[in-house]
Design goal:
By secondary structure, this protein is an alpha/beta fold. It contains six helices and 19 strands.
């Protein structure tokens, strides 16, 4: 039987942003509810080695980190719900969400932390070799390819930025693009072409990610020329798919203002949307940094803003009486 769950702070999403918001909200006595969504724990649950999250001198595992975050949030008073939101109503407060099983979630404030997913090519070997030479985040995983040969696949800003970043770790970076010109901003292209560590393969599509060795890892890419159809093979130790990200905002498109790429628009430097009491944090609004630590930071900001909003509402109510 469907139930109604009411809270002062409702959080959609259970990655670093959502759980950080929950920790701060719970410590402020807001008794938050976290609706976990389709991927409990967010993208870190499919990330193996994590070396860049502060506080850990040794490599940690992404799923373990998210389990610890959830346990911490629950310990201080957060309720986590295994549900997926299928309908939203932002027209009044409390905000009202409907889960796919019919449960209703109402929040005096709402924190959207539904995250984003990297876009993948969907090619043979890609999924099997994910985390074993294939990645969608050079900033996250580039450190593991120090002194090795790597490829970056794509032609937009993301791909060029990833290629440039990888020159901090590798002297042999190949950018693979299916066309004969890049879509990236000119200033980024100028930096790319001026970097002696980067070479470009034009008019090439990746057909397959090739694994080998023991333990199995990426050893190369099978390519096809988009003009001639000629096939070739590029030996690499790592490949970064850099064709963009897709924020999980489909359900919000008729209710919130979105910017290019589908990210939720917020007030610059804050997680505030145009709707009072409604906040967006983490990768669902951040199309620039997309890191676990920055997501956690904006989750903290959202919780602090929600607490202040509720305090102001309470003060105004007392003053009116």
């Amino acid at each position: 039987m469907a139930e109604t769950h009411r809270t002062k702070m409702l959080i959609l999403g259970s990655g670093p942003a959502g759980l950080s918001a929950a920790i701060y909200g719970a410590r402020a006595g807001l008794e938050p509810i976290v609706v976990q969504g389709l991927q409990p724990g967010g993208q870190l649950t499919i990330t193996t080695d994590v070396e860049n999250y502060p506080g850990f001198r040794d490599v940690i595992q992404g799923p373990w980190l998210m389990e610890e975050m959830q346990a911490q949030a629950e310990k201080v008073g957060t309720r986590t719900m295994f549900d997926t939101i299928v309908d939203v109503d932002f027209s009044r407060r409390p905000f009202r969400m409907t889960g796919d099983g019919g449960d209703i979630y109402e929040g005096d404030t709402l924190v959207i932390a539904t995250g984003a997913q990297a876009k993948w090519l969907g090619l043979p070997g890609e999924e099997e070799l994910s985390g074993k030479g294939v990645s969608a985040c050079a900033t996250c995983d580039g450190f593991f390819y120090r002194g090795k040969k790597v490829a970056v696949i794509g032609g937009g800003n993301t791909a060029v930025e990833e290629a440039l970043y990888m020159t901090n770790h590798s002297d042999d970076v190949t950018l693979i693009h299916r066309r004969d010109s890049l879509r990236a901003e000119k200033i980024l292209q100028d930096r790319l072409f001026a970097n002696p560590k980067i070479s470009v393969l034009w008019n090439k599509n990746v057909e397959r990610f090739v694994g080998g060795g023991e333990p199995v890892g990426l050893v190369g890419l099978d390519l096809v020329d988009t003009e001639t159809g000629d096939k070739s093979h590029l030996s690499v130790d790592g490949a970064f798919v850099a064709i963009g990200h897709a924020p999980a905002t489909e359900i919000f498109k008729d209710h919130l203002e979105l910017i290019d790429g589908g990210y939720i628009k917020v007030e610059p430097g804050t997680p505030k949307t145009k709707i009072p009491g409604l906040y967006a944090c983490g990768d669902v609004m951040d199309h620039v940094y997309r890191q676990a630590v920055t997501a956690a930071g904006t989750g903290c900001m959202a919780a602090l803003d929600a607490e202040r909003f509720l305090a102001e509402q309470e003060f105004e109510l007392m003053a009116a009486e």
